[in-house]
Design brief:
The protein has about 180 residues and is mainly beta. The protein has one domain: Jelly Rolls (Sandwich), CATH 2.60.120. About 5% of the residues lie in helices and about 35% in strands. The strands form 3 sheets. Strands 3-4-10-5-8 form a 5-stranded antiparallel β-sheet, with no helix packed on it. The protein has a 3-stranded antiparallel β-sheet with strand order 7-6-9, with no helix packed on it. β1 and β2 form a beta hairpin. The longest helix has 11 residues. It starts with 6 loop residues before the first strand and ends with a strand.
Length: about 180
Amino acid sequence: MPIEPRLVVTGHSSGGDAVFVDDRHPEPLSVQALPGADFYLMWGTADGAPTVGDKDAVPVLRPYFPGVGGSRVIFLRWAARSSDPELVPDARSVQAEVADKLPGLLDPFEDDGDGMHTTDTVDYAICIEGELSLELDNGAETILTPGTCVVQRGTRHAWKNKSDQPALMCYVQIGAVRV
């Protein structure tokens, strides 16, 4: 049985005690740009210096990638064989849908469609289920299996599921300055 991502958020009561303020299973989002994939937007912080103690804190889930000092936590279930070529529907409708549901997601991707992209983030990518391939621009590749944590430091890369099973990844993205 596949894992269903769950979000539990803590905060403070009016008296200052620690309390649970949210406990739910976020609804998955899907887009034509990644057929069969489910995005679970869990939580994010605004760009700049994150704060704690705000009684009315709300997650910042968009744009998809955080700016400097911001963060995002995303679960992404990759469809089996997502690396196989697929017929792409009308490019304009795909771009419009992504701009609406996951603004900024396509910005770092290259036009040739091989999935290579570069972001100005430090990403902690943790494989939860299945296996996923991480490819670098020089052709180097490694297979991620459950329990693997990748620290992705702004390099040119692509994620691909070449297996017959879905893969669930958790991505923690921290907006960074490129030097």
